[in-house]
Design a protein that fits this description.
alpha+beta; 39% helix; five-stranded mixed sheet; 19% strand
């Protein structure tokens, strides 16, 4: 083993002190918070077959001696079809201790959190090198310095724990990649203390994490090779085998990357994907869909590579990685170069999840940003600290001066005890300030903008009742959200896979209310076919179905339909009408801007299942249809149709998850096949705020304070018709934003008060102009979803106009928004009055909007195009 006495050799052995206790307290708090969030995601059924279910099955099979085996596409396959991750087999004994999928989630959180420990120890080693070898042996030098370096090291470890990419990684179900983070930090620490065995073990474990992570292991080998070579040159009599060992680690890692990526994965991928290469090379769009094409693009299309790399979203990705550690990583760029292959793989990918930092892909490169920040901070600390190392009492012999002058001289003449603490404080505050700011804007824990705890419902908790009825050795096919709850078995499929050869499922566990990756009608048809054949019913409740091949019962019990009935409240509701809407409830997931709309319908005495039908429509303020039951029939109507309803019950119909625009309304209708439709009712309207939450809109009240621009303005218009009748219109108007971009929507909120009534022969015009030329316009009566001015009298009349900014406008241009009232028959316009009642024209400029570059799409917009329309305005 290489043994080199370094100035900090006395600091190698960890000591239990206040700062280490505080560090382990922070690690424990991290584990408690994020393990709870991960467990709730599992319990709340927000995990799926891809990826938690299939990875969990591969790990569980490995714990039973079947190396990363899983069932895929109906046959026994292997995890090697996608990735080479030997570490999954190495961690599989965890299921000997706790045979539960949550063991993996807990392990992932603990392992990532423990990375703060070697980072802290490495920081102490680097920061304490401010002292010379002789000073290291002198307690009066060593202890005062440690009082400064320990808080700095703890701050760096805290920045690691606050890093949003790591938090997102442990909350993205389970993947092997995050397990590399502490191993990489361990390897750096082992190189620093020259412990060859630990370095080799850590580097080889990193290579075992995943095929591309082997490139990071090769980077660790390069780093060790460089550091050992420098030591070899400095100590000419030291043995050369450390250099040889580092070189072997590098070569082995590169060879393993090649074999795993270009030999093992293609060999197994053929079975599933019918192609002899990794499907993940197809994520690089314009750069090509094979390794050779991608590599050629760097030579033949450098402009394309540069254009992709400098897109705003990708630069923002780099910015967040650097800002998480106070940009100190830029002072040690050589360490960032070690992670360059994987960093570029994320940065240049056409798959947004890789360069947005909210999935698991960035977890293995965060340690490199942390270590480079450490080395950069240590360089800055040594450079500043050595210039602030003076300790002298000579100021006492200076000519007499005022107290302020003497204090100032003493401050700089004794900079070791005055300036150094100040520098350490400023450096720690700089790092903590940036880490805290990035956490608050992009973190996934409490107080952070992306904090997203999963609500747990009684329905979610009911799943355990069905899981315990499955025999441990049974082959099961399950719906997508149920799959991770039953994946501890050799054969588990995603429904309907497994029902036919080569599948061999003889049990099926389904939840028709959550993600099934099937159309609800197709799911019901398949279940009906199963029950008509060899399959029978074992248990059912609240949307869950447990089926078994050979079970005698064929009828679905009534308890299954509980999901289509509103929870009992104890009150007896029995209407004389046929069907009435009782309530509209919104279940929203702000992070992904997905909304479920739940309508509750009271079944009355006159209800006729042959003719009565409920309908719910989601519309824009202009009346455009976004969703209706006829477009996508909800599971409740498919499984619990009107023929099953009876008078007195409240039926609950939940829409599928919908991606809706910023402003939308819910219309409920009762249709009768033998009669005219009942009156259309606007049951609710919502606006998504910039914070991502939904705001219910007041349909017949004053919304100006909530909906208008901060500088909402008002005007008065006067109309005199041909019969000399006078109408006064008081108007409040506001723009949602004064900044727009090509393709964006301008939202103009108008509120009219007509005295005595709205002049029904007149209409509103709204123009968006560029240099007095109309670009877009909207004419027509005031409209807020289905509101009619005549029905709003004498209340305020809501009016919302939305315009799409043309694509040919340019950044920096200013557009004016002009409104007025006119008579379409005569062309006569209403007069616009000033505060004194004087006529100032026949149109009114509400305000101006500035055109700028489009905003960076957020994660939801980048992955789901429909979510872009509801992306918060800047």
């Amino acid at each position: 083993m290489l043994r080199i006495h370094t100035p900090n050799s006395s600091l190698r052995q960890p000591r239990l002190d206040f700062y280490r206790l505080l560090l382990f307290g922070l690690i424990s708090l991290y584990v408690v918070i994020f393990a709870r969030l991960a467990f709730d995601q599992q319990l709340g059924m927000r995990t799926h077959k891809a990826d938690l279910g299939q990875i969990d099955q591969a790990v569980w099979n490995s714990s039973r001696g079947r190396f990363v085996e899983m069932t895929d596409n109906g046959f026994v396959a292997t995890r090697l079809t996608d990735h080479v991750e030997p570490i999954l087999a190495l961690i599989s004994p965890i299921f000997w201790l706790w045979n539960d999928v949550r063991a993996l989630l807990l392990l992932q959180v603990i392992v990532v959190a423990l990375g703060a420990w070697p980072l802290y120890e490495l920081a102490l080693l680097r920061l304490d090198q401010l002292l010379s070898a002789q000073e290291q042996t002198q307690i009066w030098h060593r202890e005062p310095l440690r009082q400064l370096t320990r808080p700095l090291a703890l701050t760096l470890a805290l920045a690691y724990l606050l890093a949003p990419p790591l938090q997102s990684a442990v909350l993205t179900e389970f993947h092997a990649a995050p397990l590399a983070a502490p191993l990489i930090l361990w390897a750096f620490w082992a190189v620093e203390i020259r412990h060859l065995k630990q370095f080799v073990l850590a580097a080889l474990l990193v290579a075992c994490v995943k095929e591309e992570v082997a490139l990071l292991a090769a980077g660790l080998g390069v780093w060790a090779l460089w550091r050992f070579t420098i030591d070899d040159l400095r100590l000419t009599k030291s043995p050369r085998y450390p250099i040889l060992l580092a070189a072997l680690v590098t070569l082995f890692s590169l060879a393993w990357f090649y074999v795993a990526t270009f030999v093992i994965v293609p060999a197994y991928a053929q079975q599933v994907y019918h192609g002899a290469e990794s499907v993940y090379f197809q994520r690089y769009g314009a750069l090509g869909n094979s390794p050779l094409d991608i590599f050629k693009s760097f030579v033949t299309q450098p402009g394309v590579v540069w254009r992709i790399a400098t897109e705003v979203a990708r630069l923002d990705y780099l910015w967040k990685l650097l800002a998480s550690f106070g940009f100190l990583s830029l002072l040690a760029p050589e360490i960032l170069l070690l992670a360059l292959p994987v960093l570029l793989a994320n940065l240049l990918s056409a798959y947004p999840a890789q360069y947005y930092g909210e999935f698991h892909y960035s977890a293995p490169i965060v340690p490199y940003f942390a270590v480079s920040a450490l080395y950069g901070m240590a360089r800055l600390w040594r450079w500043l600290g050595r210039r602030a190392g003076r300790s002298s009492a000579s100021f006492q012999h200076l000519p007499a001066a005022g107290a302020g002058t003497m204090a100032l001289v003493a401050f700089f003449r004794n900079s070791r005890t005055t300036v150094r603490p100040l520098l350490a404080t400023l450096l720690g505050l700089w790092l903590l300030g940036w880490a805290g700011q990035v956490y608050l804007t992009a973190g996934r824990g409490p107080l952070a903008a992306r904090y997203d705890p999963t609500p747990i419902t009684a329905h979610d908790r009911l799943l355990a009742r069905f899981v315990v009825q499955l025999p441990p050795e049974a082959a099961v096919t399950a719906s997508a959200a149920v799959h991770p709850h039953v994946s501890h078995r050799r054969y588990v499929y995603q429904f309907p896979i497994g029902l036919e050869a080569p599948g061999q499922a003889d049990w099926a566990l389904l939840d028709v209310t959550t993600n099934t990756d099937m159309a609800p009608g197709d799911l019901k048809t398949r279940v009906d076919t199963m029950l008509a054949g060899d399959w029978g019913m074992v248990d059912a409740a609240d949307g869950f179905l447990l089926l078994h091949k050979g079970a005698p019962a064929k009828a679905i019990p009534d308890a299954f339909y509980a999901f289509a009935r509103a929870p009992a409240t104890g009150e007896k509701i029995l209407s004389d009408a046929s069907l009435e809407n009782k309530a509209v409830i919104v279940d929203d997931w702000p992070r992904w801007r997905q909304t479920k709309v739940i309508a509750q319908w009271t079944v009355g005495k006159a209800f006729d299942p042959a003719t009565d039908r409920p309908d719910l429509k989601i519309i824009t303020p202009a009346g455009d249809l976004l969703f209706s039951y006829s477009q996508a029939t909800p599971p409740a109507l498919i499984w619990y149709g009107p023929q099953r309803w009876h008078a007195g019950e409240v039926v609950q119909i939940t829409s599928p998850p919908l991606t809706l625009p910023r402003i939308w309304g819910v219309v409920v209708e009762h249709k009768r096949a033998s009669n005219e439709d009942q009156p259309t009712v606007l049951a609710a309207a919502y606006q998504r705020l910039d914070q991502g939450t939904l705001l219910p809109l007041l349909l017949n009240g004053n919304n100006a304070s909530k909906l208008g621009a901060p500088q909402a303005t008002s005007a008065r218009l006067r109309i005199v018709d041909e019969q000399k009748a006078l109408t006064m219109l008081d108007l409040q108007a506001g723009l949602s934003s004064q900044r727009v971009w090509p393709g964006a929507r301008i939202e103009l909120w108008l509120q009219w008060r007509a005295t005595p009534t709205w002049p029904m022969g007149d209409s509103v015009f709204v123009h968006v102009r560029r240099q007095n030329v109309n670009l877009v316009q909207s004419d027509g009566l005031p409209r807020f979803f289905v509101n009619d001015p005549a029905s709003a009298q004498p209340h305020l009349i809501q009016d919302l106009r939305q315009f799409t900014v043309p694509a040919d406008v340019h950044s920096g241009e200013t557009l004016a928004v002009v409104i007025g009232v006119y008579n379409p028959q005569t062309g006569q316009r209403a007069d616009v009055l000033d505060t004194n009642g004087n006529v100032i024209g026949n149109e009114w400029t509400v305000g101006q909007v500035t055109v700028e570059a489009p905003p960076v799409p957020d994660q939801a917009c980048a992955l789901v195009a429909q979510a872009c329309e509801s992306q918060p305005l800047r």
